[in-house]
Amino acid sequence: MNGLTALVSGALLSGVVLLTPSVVSAANNELIKHSNTKYSGDYTFRHCKAITKKPFDLKAQRRKVLIIGDSQACDFYNGVVETGRLKKYQVSMRYIPYQCQPTFDTNVIAPKDRPLCSKEARADSLRLAADQIKEADIVIFTARWKLKAARALPHTLKYLKFRANQRVFVLGNKNFGKINIRKYLRMSPDKLPKQTNDVPRHIRTVNTILQEGLKGTRVSYIDQQKVLCGGSDEHCHVFTSNRKLISYDGWHLTESGARFAGSLLFRKTKLGSL
Q1: At CA 64, angle to CA 151 and CA 266, rounded to 5?
Q2: In this predicted structure, which of 31-40, 85-94, 151-160, 175-184 has the lowest mean pLDDT?
């Protein structure tokens, strides 16, 4: 008796609702596909490469959205693409590597990363993006924020001197815990939507700093950890209600995860006004 047959027989004996073998096989094949880091990693950057440093057409009537951040910004844009949002806008991105962070404070950058972050040919920065930031009508910061960068953010935003008619959004960190594909492959697919992971405590710490630092400002803070995890910042579901894996590594979204995240962020937060 092979593993799939055993799973089916066990379900029949226990009286649980049985998914057909084809459904089980399809779910497992999808999990295996997303566990391939090359496949999933290529997806993370596929769409954002096309808009990185894309100049705005200043003569066009369409309003301009600038997304700033690291691979988390690519994740956010994947959600935009998968849900068909922001089509009426010009959209560009400034990709600032995780090591460099969206900040002017060089003390935020680890000494070992400063050579990378100081080379304009290798790493973008807020200083290099300053002119395009001024051109944008809407600026969205979304990154894997380090603690020091989160603390420096109020000063960073103040230094940028946004106009009164510019809208600024800051998305906090998100994480889906430790992803264990082998474990999920051993589970009955009908149990996958109930699977939750613990969220690392430092995610909550950084998000609290971001939220507190932006109180009393015109900047709209979005705690996407709570939005994507049903209001919790301690535990998070790993799969959607239809058994689709949300994140392949705990940080970055699958295609289904991007569709799931984009839908929630634009339905349940101030991003919905865009």
Answers
A1: 65
A2: 31-40
pLDDT of residue 18: 43
C-alpha span between 170 and 274 (Å, rounded): 14
CB 191 within 8 A of CB 241: no
Q: Does domain 19-273 have CATH number 3.40.50.1110?
A: yes
Query: What tokens were used for 113?
Result: 């990363």
Residue entry with tokens 């950084």: 206
Helix crossing, 21-35 with 3-14: angle to 10°?
Answer: 130
* Cβ-based neighbours of 215, under 8 Å, separated by 6 or more: none
Q: Distance (Å, rounded) from C-alpha 257 to C-alpha 182?
A: 19
pTM score: 0.88
Taking the C-alpha atoms of residue 97 and residue 179, their distance in angstroms, rounded to an integer, is: 23
Mean pLDDT for the stretch of residues 131-150: 97
* CA–CA dist 100, 139 (Å, integer): 19
DSSP code of residue 200 = P
CA distance to 16, 46, 190, per residue, from 9 (Å):
11, 42, 15
Tell me 253's DSSP state. Answer: B
Give a three-class secondary structure readout of 140-189. Answer: EEECCCCHHHHHHHHHHHHHHCCCCCCEEEEECCCCCCCCCHHHHHHCCH
**pLDDT for the residue 81:** 97
**Domain residue ranges of the chain, discontinuous segments joined by +:** 19-273
User: In whole angstroms, what is the distance from residue 227 CA to residue 237 CA?
Assistant: 12
Q: How confident is the model at residue 28 (pLDDT cuts 50, 70, 90)?
A: confident
